[in-house]
Design a protein that fits this description.
eight-stranded antiparallel barrel
């Protein structure tokens, strides 16, 4: 998905890429279903400053929780959150080697599922992602459209 930077960091890096993989276990809860599991991903962006340019790679790994409203409904609606640590690597010409550190991250969003059958369909997702590096928050909007298969 594209990672569209917002906030102060958006002046240095407008657009990046975000890829994520979530492995969740689903169990019934009320009229819907709860999904809990693990989320891992990678966010890549270039930043252009007044003095130097930098390449930023952030790899989040954390817990994932989703609630699916009215399981099997058309369309399906899911809200989700993910929290945990992220490995952040910044490479800039003035640094020499890459600077690597562990930072916290948070992700929250909503997904609209448009099923073609009981196990196959298309999802439209809007997520907001935040990486906290000291006093700086790298924040961005990550919209996505994808095909899904449920086993």
């Amino acid at each position: 998905a594209p990672f569209i930077s917002t906030g102060d960091v958006g002046t240095y890096s407008k657009l990046g890429m975000l890829a994520a993989l979530a492995l969740d276990y689903r169990f019934p809860l009320g009229q819907g279903a709860m999904e809990t599991g693990f989320l891992a991903g990678a966010c890549w962006m270039n930043a252009a400053g007044a003095a130097a340019d930098a390449t930023i790679l952030i790899v989040p790994m954390g817990v994932d929780a989703k609630y699916v409203f009215a399981t099997g409904g058309f369309p399906g609606l899911t809200v989700h959150v993910s929290l945990g640590p992220a490995l952040m690597s910044v490479t800039a010409s003035y640094l020499g080697d890459a600077m690597v550190k562990l930072v916290p991250y948070g992700l929250a969003g909503m997904t609209l599922d448009l099923p073609f059958s009981a196990s196959f369909g298309i999802s439209v997702e809007a997520s907001y992602v935040m990486f906290f590096e000291g006093s700086i928050a790298i924040m961005g909007f990550a919209p996505a459209v994808r095909m899904y298969v449920q086993l």
